[in-house]
Amino acid sequence: MIPAIPTTYRNVRFRSRLEAKWAAFFDLLGWPWLYEPIDLNGYIPDFILQLPNPVLVEVKPAFSFDELRKHTAKIDASGWEGECLLVGACLLRAETWDRHSLGLLGQFVPAHEAVEAGIEAHFYWYDPAILIDNKGHAGFNAEYNSYSDRVAEDNDWKNYKRLHNADALWAKAGNIVQWKAA
In terms of residue numbers, what domain contains 24? Predict the structure, then answer.
């Protein structure tokens, strides 16, 4: 395993350059974030996106949805009762849409609903979280089931377009936090 390189961005010391890159990417998208803001059950999430409904974000050095799916248990047991994103080392391609994905989107399912649905986990993992352009603003929604833009809190999915500059923004975020000789 390659050790993480602590990186400072916006006067915050991140445990890894990958976490700092996600912070820079969130800034470029215009999404407010907090780094390691709360303690949950044996777990500190990497970020909380300060959206109308806060979204927990966990960063993993993964390059595929299958790799990301291996990291859901910690979030499932965390006690978090909102939506969460599990993001990786890069933007991924959505499974069915020709769009960029942030990673996996999970939604908390209360225990009584989980029992009724016959599932063990307290999170339902929607699968890809799709990056969208919603009337000129960056947002995201689930590839399946729930098309609501989590950033703008609207369901007007007919106005959602592909976020065409996602690759450029991701590259720019990497340039912002790249290693520099002291």
Answer: 7-176
The pair of three-digit structure tokens given for residue 54, joined into one six-digit string: 């806060």
The parts of the chain modelled with pLDDT lower than 70 are 1, 95-97, 114, 119-122, 145, 181-182
The overall average pLDDT reported for the chain is 88
Please state whether beta strands 55-59 and 83-93 pair in parallel, antiparallel, or not at all (unpaired). Answer: parallel
Domain count, the chain: 1
- The answer to whether residues 93 and 120 touch, using CB atoms and an 8 Å cutoff, is no
Give the predicted TM-score (pTM) of the model. Answer: 0.90
Residue 151 class from Cβ within 10 Å (0-12 exposed, 13-18 middle, 19+ buried)? buried
Is 78 among the domain residues?
yes
The answer to whether residue 181 sits within a structural domain is no
Torsion angles phi and psi, residue 141, rounded to 5? -145, 170
Residue 167 near residue 70 (C-beta atoms within 8 A): no
